[in-house]
Design brief:
By secondary structure, the protein is of the alpha/beta class. The protein contains 13 helices and 14 strands. Belongs to the class-III pyridoxal-phosphate-dependent aminotransferase family.
């Protein structure tokens, strides 16, 4: 983990006007119970959602949803003050309402809280610190508010730099909700049927050793075999008179099933793409910031350096912050259009201060090492369960980025859709 000097965490319980619970300064139990019991009932919320919030904006356990009244650390609390372990947590990287984040956010909001084209300290200090965690060639930051914005901007930069338009993506991938990103997200656009895929999108098979086109042990040879499928797409695109602008992939696939790519996959893919004149984009929105344990950035596990890296979700611990990190060469190409880049909220002082606080906490609380140790422990326990339950086909992952593959039969590897839904619903009871 390559980081600059960290700030000292100087928040005391008294500063938060509360006591300690699970290592977190928080309000008194009476205050928390008042918060939990106040406000609208679950039924009232659902009625108002039906009336005023779009139907596509779904909630978990939609047949019997949970109202979360407040959260602390790794726990969320409902209106009856029942405590739930947050096992989603791809956003609250350092825990809900971390006191250092709350303190820094409050202080910055009282000093300077809007983005502008004037000079202010925190954006450059944060950019410098963030860049220090990357290989030296990745040194230029462009700020946005969400991972979707970051990935959309990454496509713009790639297309401007290469003067090409076609994108190679990986099957089952999800990269965001804008129109351009739905186009490169088979996880989403396949729901649209035949009209979903655009002709300028080329889909490589998911390099999944368990369920993919090529199955077996996750060896370098398997990674190279999957990478050759990307080369075939490039060769076919060239035969069709098309040019590849970029290859985009999460460094480990998330929505596609927590897939850890076999060794040498990204190494060879990046080689083929660059030889074709394209650039390589690593989507670290879900897998970055030490979550995989052994590395601060998941792309490091493949021994590669991308041309563009996109960051979101945990970067601001729930605050709207995202960044596109790239090389000086690509940043110069993007600027050469003469069209300046400005994002009304991207890089605002409050978000940058929060992002800086998140880096403080990762360093001072040794969270990367914690992810490695706790992840190894969790995988060990899950593997023990696998010996007892044939429903578990495979346990995979790195650090605290772990997936469990459920099957009806370990030979056919068919997926038990109904059982998966049952297990998801049962989590509602078992996690509190």
């Amino acid at each position: 983990m390559r980081v600059a000097k960290r700030a000292k965490l100087d928040v005391s319980a008294s500063e938060m006007n509360g006591n300690l619970e699970n290592g977190y300064p928080c309000q008194s139990r009476d205050e928390d119970e008042t918060k939990a019991s106040g406000g609208l009932s679950t039924q009232e919320i659902m009625e108002l959602r039906t009336k005023h919030i779009g139907k596509a904006c779904e909630v978990h356990f939609k047949d019997n949803p949970i109202k979360i009244a407040y959260a602390r650390g790794q726990y969320m609390y409902d209106e009856q003050d029942n405590r739930y372990l947050d096992c989603i947590n791809n956003v609250t990287h350092v825990g809900h309402c971390h006191p250092h984040v709350v303190k820094v956010c409050h202080e910055q909001m009282g000093t300077l809280n809007t983005n502008s084209r004037f000079l202010y300290d925190i954006i450059v200090k944060y950019a410098q610190r963030l860049a220090s965690t990357f290989p030296p060639q990745l040194s230029q930051c462009h700020f946005a508010c969400t991972g979707s914005e970051a990935n959309d901007l990454a496509l713009r930069i790639a297309r401007q730099h290469t003067d090409a338009y076609d994108i190679i993506t990986v099957d089952r991938a999800y990269h965001g909700h804008t129109t351009a990103l739905i186009d490169i997200s088979p996880y989403k656009y396949r729901k649209l049927g035949a009209k979903g895929k655009k002709d300028y999108i080329h889909v490589a098979p998911t390099p999944d050793p368990y369920r993919g086109m090529f199955q077996g042990e996750a060896t370098p040879e398997l990674g190279e075999k999957y990478a050759l499928e990307v080369k075939k797409l490039i060769d076919q695109a060239h035969k069709d008179g098309r040019k590849i602008a970029a290859f985009i992939s999460e460094s480990m696939q998330g929505c596609g099933g927590q897939i850890v790519y076999p060794p040498n996959y990204l190494r060879d893919v990046y080689k083929y793409v660059r030889e074709a004149g394209g650039v390589c984009i690593a989507d670290e929105v879900q897998v970055g910031f030490g979550r995989v344990g052994k590395h601060f950035w998941a792309f490091e596990s493949q021994g590669v350096v991308p041309d563009i890296v996109t960051l979101g979700k945990p970067i601001g611990n729930g605050h709207p912050l995202a960044v596109v990190v790239t090389t000086p060469e690509l940043a110069e190409s993007f600027a050469a259009t003469g069209m300046s880049y400005f994002n009304t909220y991207g890089g605002n002082p409050v978000s940058c201060a929060v992002g800086n606080a998140v880096l403080d906490i990762i360093e001072n609380e040794n969270l990367q090492q914690h992810a490695l140790e706790l992840g190894d422990y969790l995988k060990e326990k899950l593997l023990q369960l696998q010996t007892k339950h044939r429903l578990i086909g495979e346990v995979r992952g790195m650090g605290l980025y772990i997936g469990v593959e459920l099957v009806t039969d370990r030979t056919t590897r068919n997926q038990p859709q109904k059982r998966q839904e049952e297990l998801f619903t049962r989590q509602k009871r078992s996690l509190f």
